[in-house]
Amino acid sequence: xxxxxxxxxxAMSKPESLPFHSLPAKVAPALDLLADxxxxxxxxxxxxxxAGQLLADMGATVVKVEKPRTGDDCRAWGPPxxxxxxxxxxxxxxxxKSIALDIASPAGRExxxxxxAECDVILLNLVAxxxxxxxxxxxxxxxxxxxxxxxxxxxxxxxxxxxxxxxYDLIAEGYSGVMDLTGEAETPPQKVGTPAADxxxxxxxxxxxxxxxxxxxxxxxxxxxxxxxxxxxxxxMAPRLMPYLGSGELSRRTGGRDSVIAxxxxxxxxxxxMTLGLGNDAIWKRFWxxxxxxEVAADPAFASNAQRREGxxxxxxRIAALLATQPRAHWLAVLGAARVPAGPIQRLDELxxxxxxxxxGFIYRMDGPDGPIPQVGxxxxxxxxTEGTAVPPPKLGADTVDILRTWLDCDAVQIxxxxxxxxx
Length: 424
Hints:
With 424 residues, this protein is α/β, with parallel strands linked by helices. Helices cover 41% and strands 14% of the residues. The chain has helices at 3-12, 47-57, 87-91, 106-118, 128-133, 138-144, 169-176, 196-219, 229-236, 238-247, 281-290, 294-298, 305-310, 312-323, 328-337, 348-352, 355-359, 400-408, 412-420, and strands at residues 38-41, 61-66, 81-82, 85-86, 96-100, 121-124, 149-154, 223-228, 264-268, 273-277, 342-344, 363-368, 371-376. It has a six-stranded parallel β-sheet, sandwiched between helices. A three-stranded antiparallel β-sheet has the order 9-10-11, with helices on one face. A hairpin with a 2-residue loop joins β12 (363-368) and β13 (371-376). α2 (47-57) crosses α8 (196-219) and α7 (169-176) packs across α9. The two termini are 20 Å apart.
């Protein structure tokens, strides 16, 4: 990082006014579901690191293998930075150790192959051609370790006509159709407001690893897993794609208004927007009874969702006029008591202050190597427990010597030789 940029972002990390300083601290024992599983994470950016973080959250030992000096590309994604580190990087690398290793060098590649022989899972986001060039393809690595679960997480998969094309989240979202259906009808296509394809593909990779490890307990064999960001994101579109395939009816952008369920959209209240989902006949009736207009619930013209779709414009106008008369908090209290699905449209600052998420231990702060840092948790509980906070996102290469010693029994002389060869 350039000195000026580092100084600016470092200075920004000091004031006690930063939003995460008000988050609850969380100290909890780490989950142990994958306590005996060793993972090598060679991925960069978001999708692969997120898969590695999910496995770490569930108790796996995850070693992040990074390029010496520069590390994961995501380390440079900013500003904003905190303590000189990218907050994007911190969001998907909790629970890992970092080894700085030049896998393009003969000495570095030899060390990596020795590490592969000791691990259970390897995560890669290299296209097949690059995997073969670096001797990281499944055939090569599973010859070293037949029990290895070899995971390729790429834009288009390891085979097919697009296999060698580079890909980012934006590209995968465009292929999938989600951008075409996101936004208001009169606006251009829009990207989802978070790296959705990255996170979905990362979740798929972690899920696939768990399935492969379970099968391995039965037959002792590893597995070659191929996750495509485009396919993960396109599967996410199944509730939109399937109706088109079966009817020929092409959905278009409708903003916050769903084209199938009536009523399912955003409404303005007297002081802010809210969401409202009247997804079945019983909820439709409860809504109108809760707002004091039971005669609408009893109107046979609106008895089914199909009928409500036909009268959508009239219904929307009536609900909009009603909800505009009171503040959002009033309606959320009324509808919550009636068990009608409704909620606020929260900004990020409001989400960060969500007390229910604080109480759940989902948004919290933890101690990092240079000071406290925020974290967004796993959000999954096992016997009432979610992930612990023992290992913060690692500094680049912080665990290189420890891993070489504990995994490979390297002594001080061997480690110095690797340094002299610029392999670490």
